[in-house]
Write a structure and sequence with these properties.
Blueprint (H helix, E strand, L loop, with lengths): L5 E3 L21 H11 L3 E5 H4 L8 H17 L3 E6 L18 H21 L3 E5 L4 E2 L7 H18 L4 E5 L8 E2 L4 H8 L8 E6 H6 L4 H10 L3 E6 L18 H13 L9 E3 L14 H19 L2 H10 L2 H13 L2
Parallel strand pairs: 1-2, 1-10, 2-3, 4-6, 6-8, 8-9, 9-10
Antiparallel strand pairs: 5-7
Helix pairs in contact: 3-4, 4-5, 8-9, 9-10
Bound molecules: D-xylulose and manganese (II) ion.
Amino acid sequence: MSKFKFSVGPWNVHEGADAFGPSVRESIPLSEKIKKFKEIGFDAVQFHDDDVVPDMNDLSEAAIKQKAKEAKKVLDDHGLKAEFVAPRLWMDPRTIDGGFTSNDPKDREFALWRAFKSIDIAHELGCDKLVLWLAREGTLCYESKDPVLSVNRIVEAINEMLKYDKNIRVLIETKPNEPIDRSFCPTIGHAIALSYKTIDPNRVGALLESAHAILAGLDPANEIAFGIANKKLWSVHLNDQNGCKYDQDKTFGVENLRQAFNQIKILVENDYGRNGEYVGLDVKAMRTQKVDDCYRHLYNSLKIVKMLEDKVSQFDNSFKKKCQEERNYEALEMYVLELIMKG
Ligand code: XUL
Ligand code: MN
């Protein structure tokens, strides 16, 4: 049993291609993934805009809405909700230099169009959250963009989204690098600062991904805490990551169990989810995994979250208080390790 509601994206069951090799598993149709997500125990699905409406660049406004309606029906048939829609702003030739911060005004226009269409799709799916993973909003060559102008361009683009739909909420998914070298919005603190520069800060928040925090050299639990303290943590992407390397999106907890424990502890203790927020997973099957067991990372991540919830419920706060009073943090540290390791 869990106190949380869980969400997952179709891209989490992928074909296994990486930067150095092609696909190694066959594609699974969206409707099949959705059915399986329900069976595994998820409550909601997260979408990129073109997960819902493939080839959307070539479709009319009416055709995009019609496709989204069809996807909503599949969700309804399986008793699942849509958590958010995220414009895929990193695949198209018009986003090579970034979307909202591209030096070419036509690219910026395209990025905004995708954001508007994503809002339309979210509307049809019955959700009010738009996630912006600002994949290429940064630089490969430092001098190629004006960093101050770029931050302001992101703010202006978000303002247009807020004006386009008075109910939409925008969540910035922060990441310090990859695919670009230097992001203009690398951490939750940056996202929150940026939210206050928009015309409606109450509708701009953040999504924290564990792996992205680790890539920034930060502890994901503290990034979660910072978001919660500012009432801006509206979604999470739990996963794991072995140090500052490429983005690994590993099963939650497999690399640093204590760090995973503390993420769950902060979420539980602060009653995360009470306003309808989901615990999202952004985990990917290893390239080596065979297609007949390619959902294993999702089962395992959910199992680890629930086991850690159980550990959190056993946490002895009076012992913590005693350690604080005696300033005996060696004892506290050992207590935490024993709690996590005991059967
Ligand atoms: C990229 C990443 C994305 C977003 C959704 O690192 O995490 O999958 O979560 O666009
Ligand atoms: Mn993510």
